[in-house]
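Question: what's this shape?

___
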Amino acid sequence: MGPVLHLNTEATYRGGEVQTLGLLRELAKAGGRGFLAAPAGAPLARKAAELGVEVASWNPRGEWDLAAAWAVLREARRFGARILHAHTAHALTPALVAAALDPRLKVVATRRVSFPLRSRLSRIKYGRAHVVVAVSGTIQEALEASGIAPDRIRVIHSGVDLERFRDLPGRDQARRSLHVPQGAFVVGVAAALAPHKGHARFLSALSPRRGGFSDLHLLLAGDGPCRGDLEAMCAREALPVRFLGHLDDLRAFYGSLDVLVLPSLSGEGSPGAVKEAAAAGVPVVASEVGGVAEILRHEREALLVPPADSEGLWEAVHRLARDSRLREALASGAARRILEFGMDRMAGAYARLYADLTIPAPGGGGPSTGRRETGGGDTGGRGPGPRGG
């Protein structure tokens, strides 16, 4: 596998940036050469540089910034890269323009959300990538429904740093650090405070159920445009909720929890919070959206409910609050299941993909892009169906 230039346009540090950094780290461990182009001063650029990754400052002013495309071409030539890996939708267009200027370059685009490709431009640009990586089988299906050729899609689930989330502070210490009462039943949500994440609907269903939760304490980790409205709702209803904001280190958060809830309404690909909770030994209640059921299966490793069923989410939380054996069984099952989604497994799948793009196919027909992986976090096709087994 030759050098790869990774492209990321985000100035923030969220799930996609966690995955970009983890991939760079794991590929470097295996002897791969990866370089990063990212906005100057962005957390991802800083963290990658701290790992020893060579970083080029890259500040596109938009998808059609031709100077940004020329910069990609220049950096690819400087690093000797033959693969451009676009980790964000806005990075894909400059990558494709650079590849048009130098046909030796191959473009990989990772699609992390299950929203359909709504615009003609989106369908065109994803259709012209050499390979589109879908981080769940659900995203694969959405891409195919949008007209992306099946032989250009490969499924590679996002990874999780298993060791990091096994090394948690003790519960008492974690709760003290977050100012959580020691005897509370603690439910957490780790997600951006955005409409499709479902916080408002989930919290609105809490009030009628508070009688059975005299010791309930909710922790919301994350930030976003809905924070003000959510804080006002919680103040108005006197809900036992604490807003923690963005946390660079979530280990104390997971260490303090009795249950992790993912109340998302749509858009999830391969949600990191579900995998992190599983690695941390925290039982999960989640909406069955996107690739959730491909990671943790209903009644085996988690309790899953239909999207937008906030009452169902709270019923599942009540069930776990009453049944410590079920909490332990789900957490144990999830800890075994999540071994298939380690960051190293994800990086291995990407390394095989990069090799497929740079090694000529038999018969001299150019690089092979259609090979499908099987097993673990790299499913190579559709994951199990809803509540799959």
User: Anything to note?
Assistant: Confidence is low (pLDDT under 50) at residues 364-389. The CA atoms of residues 187 and 218 lie 5 Å apart.
